[in-house]
Amino acid sequence: MAERTSRREPSERDLRWLRAAIELSRRCPPSPSAYSVGAIVVDASGEEIARGFSRESHPRDHAEEAALAKLPPGDPRLRTATVYSSLEPCSTRASRPTPCAQLLIEAGVPRVVLAWREPELFVDCRGVEVLEAAGVEVVEVPELASLARAVNAHLFDT
């Protein structure tokens, strides 16, 4: 498969928040069938407004979904927010009807920064493509991918 990359450059603030999202992913209860992911929503002024991690309050919770659930529907801060996610937001989902990429689009989030593209272990994820097709700016930070992958090493150890 050809490498899929988004080439926008991250800022120092992006790197700081993305590292925090990766660290948050360490709080996920382990699962043999799902990634451990952290997501942080930051408003336009650089303040955190929500955070979530996979399986935070339910075995089927995804990180972006858990973070968005902590904000009121239609929260106007989302229209200028950035979501930092340790893993590419999902575009296909078996456990719930709406994938995270679509949840972010529906919430009006204009920008997503991620560390690691989802490997084809469970599904063929196209979250970046879905987000970009909807006009969301996506910044990929591949130099932090190994940190996000390390949290999920148990899925690849055989």
From TrEMBL:
Which GO molecular function terms does the record list?
Answer: diaminohydroxyphosphoribosylaminopyrimidine deaminase activity
Lineage top rank: taxon: Bacteria
Residue ranges occupied by any CMP/dCMP-type deaminase domain in the UniProt entry: 12-129
Compositional bias (Basic and acidic residues) at which positions? 53-67
Q: Where is this region: Disordered?
A: 53-75
Write the signal peptide boundaries: none
Q: Which InterPro entries match?
A: CMP_dCMP_dom, Cytidine_deaminase-like
Write one Pfam family the protein is assigned to: dCMP_cyt_deam_1
Q: Which PANTHER family match?
A: CYTOSINE DEAMINASE FAMILY MEMBER, RIBOFLAVIN BIOSYNTHESIS PROTEIN PYRD, CHLOROPLASTIC
Q: What is this protein called?
A: Diaminohydroxyphosphoribosylaminopyrimidine deaminase
Q: Which organism's genome codes for this protein?
A: Thermasporomyces composti
